[in-house]
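tool_call: predict_structure(chain=1)
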Amino acid sequence: MCTGVAAMQWLAAGLIFLVSGFFAMLGMGGGMLHVPILIWLGYDLKQQAQPIGILLNGLTGLVALVTYARHRLVDWKGGLPMAGAALVLAPAGALTARLLPDRWLVGLFAGVVLAAAIRTLRSAADPDPDHRPPLGRRLLLGSLGAGLAAFLGGMLGLGGGTFVSPLLMWMGYPTKEAVATTAYIVTFSSFSGFVGRMGYLSASWSLVLLLALAAVAAAAAGSHLMATRAKPHWVKVAYSMLLMGVGVKLLW
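tool_result:
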């Protein structure tokens, strides 16, 4: 029995490693796939998959943020009020999730995944802007959008990067700066959302530690690749295809 549990944990760690590295390239923590992976492996949605998923989201975002900061890609000034809004509203979303049936959460989760896939694919061929949008627009629209994203992310066990990254690109951020600033915001919203779920976490610390180490190692590699070599167009296309598959699977 113990051998079977250990094998399941190592399988989860391997899948989390692959997902975290890929999502770190987009400034996201990977909670969008962490949660489905843990559900598919038999872990409980509200007591295991969502709390662990949002914790891993925060760790991946933090490691990616450090890498992007070293390459001077983060919009610290424009992202600060977005991160503040995320910090406040993510726990509210986490508490709201306790009031909703599991079936509703999974259905909403699938809808979010598919919407993000379509939006990202449609923007893949757009030319990359040369400059950030005006500061006023970043502060106003960014704060409102990031706050809503954090609330939904906290409710679904995500860090909100699913919504923030397309929002920043729509606002006119260059792709790599949108990715880097998303990591900034996701780090705040994820750890804040985890605090709101900490009391509901029911999982072995050996599992949590193993998955955390896998996420951190993958995030370091993925964010370095994005900052130095990756082409945003191909990353977004591959990301969209992957999300569509996950959304269809969840609905099924």
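agent: The chain is about 80% helix and 0% strand. Proceeding to next step.
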